[in-house]
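Sequence in, structure out. Go.
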Amino acid sequence: MRRVFGKVRVRAAAGASLVVAVALVAAGTALLLVLKNNLVGQADLQAENAAREVATQIATGKPYEKLDLPDGDDRPVVVLAEDGRVLAAGDDVRAVDGKAVTERQPPATRQPDGSGSGSDDDDDDREIKPGEVEDKARHSGGTATVGHRTADYRFATVEAKDTQGDKAVVRAGAPLAAEREAVGSVRTAMLIGLPCLLLVVAGVTWLVTRRALRPVEGIRREMAAITASTDLSRRVPEPGSRDEIDRLARTTNETLGALQESVERQRRFVADASHELRSPIASLRTQLEVGIAHPELLDAEGAVEDAVRLQNLAADLLLLARLDAGERPADTRIDLAALVREEVSQRVGDRIAVQVGDLAGVEVAGSRSQVGRVLGNLLDNAERHAAGTVRASVVRDGRWAVLRVEDDGPGVPPEERERIFERFVRLDDARSRDDGGAGLGLAIARDVAERHGGTLAVRDCSVFELRLPAA
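Output:
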């Protein structure tokens, strides 16, 4: 079982780590994309500002050789004529996109797919006038060689016309080194931090799962001890956390309690059955031994009565055993009124004749023999305690079929109305066993009623009421 709990902790830690890893990878990828786009946008803006500064100088009529161009490798600038001639270039700018600045270069044009351009509006195609600068800049990626160093840049291209109407194309760049360094730093931090974070998540999940499963391990140990000792009076510890594990512990204890009650009930049943069987067996043996020694003294009728009593008791015990085993009753239609008439017609030798009351035509589903057994036991009980009247009736109460057996005897005290349905219980301990029976009749009757989805209870002291679902 410990291995099972260990596997649960491993699976929980692995699952949590996997979920966190997927979430972090997705969030990190989105973060890198956003960061890269922002930095590229900033580079585009810087390049466009540098290109517009130079284009503004050209539009005001400043000579190309006197243009104030940015120095260094932060803002490489190239000014091209409309035919591709290099009109001006920043200091140390040796090449742009692999073309030397001293060579004839094609002027930058708009991308046919729109990538890298600032806008697709029709204003981009408006012909600029002398002394004006193009409204929209076009952005693209490329390389530039400044001094002896070649690097990647984002270029902004802006057209302008000088005061003479000659068009010039200004192409200024902004380095991408900072963008790549920032993205690389974030990527490195994520690659280092992600495994560490996953280890922390796995460790915390392991500890939390271990702590959560600790009460379960306590329940398991106690159940193992109960199984080894067969002591059903023991109970598993309840953590009191009001969660699923606490409910599991309470349910387990309730199950143990029911099991203990069932075992104790079975033990009492075996002990009581042995005690009840001992009397008729001993009596029958005594009579047979006397008959063998003195045939003239043999009480044949008494021996037959003991044998019948023993037979009836064995039948009762067998029926109770089948009921305890969960035997399901047959699903046949039973007419209660016809069953009452049949049972009353067969009781010709009773001390008190059974009177038949109202017999409503209502049917129930179940075992005819078992329901008949209930009716017979109720009538036997009424015969045993009645002063002079026993009555049986059948009525319908909504969806219930109600069978009532009443007598004019002293009735059952309210405090004993549940106890009489226990097995081997006889309220009048002073009467003889022959008159009082073994105390199984009412217990069998209630068990049969419950197996048929109904109830059996005492109403008004001397009225026994059997309620079964009407078919």
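Check: The helical segments are 2-59, 177-229, 244-293, 300-324, 336-346, 368-385, 433-436, 441-451. Residues 2-59 form the longest helix (58 residues).
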